[in-house]
Amino acid sequence: MQLFRQLRPVSKENIPLEQIHTMISFKFFEEFGRYLLLMKKSFVRPEKMSIYRKELLRQMIEIGVGSVGIVIIFSVFLGAVLTVQTAYQFTSPLLSKSIIGSIVTNSTIIEMAPTVTCLILAGKIGSSIASELGTMRISEQIDALEIMGINSAAYLVLPKVIAATIMIPIIIIIGAFLQILSGLVVGHVSNVVTATEFMQGSVQYFIPFTVTFAIIKATTFGFIISSVSAYLGYYTTGGALQVGNSATRAVVASCILILVFDYLLAELLL
Which of 159, 179, 211, 269 has the most C-beta neighbours closer than 10 Å? Predict the structure, then answer.
């Protein structure tokens, strides 16, 4: 009887809180170390530049062109809603309606276009990258590349990271322009602010550094989405169910890191 008590598994309730914290910390540093090693393995000189160039162009089309549609739809409606709701808040006759254009423009460039749009792209691009690499891992295609002497990390991960880092800022610029344009049009059509007043506020209170700040954020978020999703997909284990789990983890992790770095960049650069 004493032997059975000794062999009885320990429940989570009996584990000390300090030990749980230690296990979580160890797991975090283990995952972070594997991520850094994968990035180091990926960022090496390609064996055949022509092959990598073709893969880079394919990824730029898939990530960039493939995401334009959802960004257009999202940006048009977000700009319209932002204008209407901003106008709703400013009902005092003492305030100039041109301030609506200023708020919509600056909010779009600083936060709405880079951050909110990248949260949407994390769901589309992140899940796609993680699913693709996860499927290649469980079907042993990555192992086959390694057997043939090809650096699988550099061939599969590097083009995706570079493509996302280049294309996502371009997509964000398009999205910001459409948000401001849709805000101007909807404001004028709904008679909450004229196009002249909207443009006057946008130009009068415009801060040029906000554009640079938005591009820095978009570049950072593009790297986060692609690299984190590639890492989780590259190290997928198990079967088809784990591929879905990797895609879900990629989206969640990318969104959390986007919000964390959104705060850090704002604290450091603004």
Answer: 179
Round to whole Å and give the CA distance between 103 and 105: 6
Look up the pTM and report it: 0.87
Query: 17-42 vs 209-234: helix axis angle to the nearest 10?
Result: 100
| 246 Ramachandran zone, left/alpha/beta (phi>0; psi -120 to 50) | alpha
Task: Supply the DSSP string of 112-163, one letter for each residue.
Answer: IIIIIHHHHHIIIIIHHHHHHHHHHHHTTHHHHHHHTT--HHHHHTHHHHHH
Range of the domain at 253: 46-269
Rounded to whole angstroms, how far apart are CA atoms 175 and 173? Answer: 5
CB 193 within 8 A of CB 100: yes
SS3 27: helix
Nearest-angstrom CA–CA distance, 48 and 3: 62
For 36, what's the count of Cα atoms within 13 Å in the CB-facing half-sphere? Answer: 6
Q: Is residue 173 part of a domain?
A: yes
The 8-class DSSP code of residue 194 comes to -
Q: Is 85 part of any domain?
A: yes
Task: Dump pLDDT digits (tens) for 161-208.
Answer: 999 999 999 999 999 999 999 999 999 998 888 899 999 999 988 889
